[in-house]
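Practice record 12: protein with nicotinamide-adenine-dinucleotide.
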Amino acid sequence: MSNRFESKVVVITGAGSGLGRAAALELAKEGAKLSLVDLNEASLAETQNQIKAIAPKAEVLLLTADVSNEEAVKKYVEDSLAKFGRIDGFYNNAGIEGKQAPTADYDSKMFDKVIDINLKGVFYGMKYVLPVMKEQQSGAVVNVASVGGIRGVLNQAAYVASKHAVAGMTKNAAIEYGQYNLSINAIAPGAIMTDMVVGSLKQIGGEDAWEEAGKQFVSVNPKKRFGKPEEVGRLVAFLLSGESEFINGAVIPIDGGQSNQY
Ligand code: NAD
């Protein structure tokens, strides 16, 4: 096992589930000190239990916060700094899907909620982490976009708008902060089997037929399967490790090739 994260501090939002938890486990195995942020306290505690099982010595700080609340974001960054003194990596990952509906039927309050979490949450995260990394003259950020940040996805106006915006904001920050030795990228996962995707399939197929909806969904993927959270975790680890330092402003699909298939 390599230890690319020995003495590195990484902040992960949405660390209580799915992609955030998988990255936390991946980084803990490689020696990272972790500041884990989520709205859901119980699921954060479960992530910590899973980390203890594979990396008993890992230093972990749990922070309950809503990423759509700017003050809460400022605080999770301050608390992370108070505990660890620096931030080497930032996985700006927390997000929600929202309710599926054609654009004209899309509920306006839900639209605001998706934008508040998926877009403003990512913006606030960068707003408070980038000055820390600029001061250090080092650091790497991975924002979470989606294939929905590259192309349209049926019935997901707010999600797709938020994820295209995350991709755009990533490119912008990359050209602003590259000169300070920071690398800022986004990942664009396809369907990776997490609670969010189960929820999405239930919206498509209903409680009884969501597994069948899932089979149909992946039948058009070149790899004929869902992605695994740990596959995304390994990509995130690479992008935060320093090994990929010249990759800056990229939006990297991890989707079995599906985003090429229009
Ligand atoms: P998930 O639902 O399994 O996990 C999301 C986590 O974020 C949960 O623990 C939840 O409590 C937390 N969260 C939600 N709102 C929050 C808030 N306001 N403040 C703090 N934490 C909050 O979902 P996931 O599949 O792991 O998704 C993680 C990210 O990956 C999201 O941004 C999602 O849009 C993106 N993504 C996922 C997929 C996929 O197929 N799973 C594909 C593309 C992009």
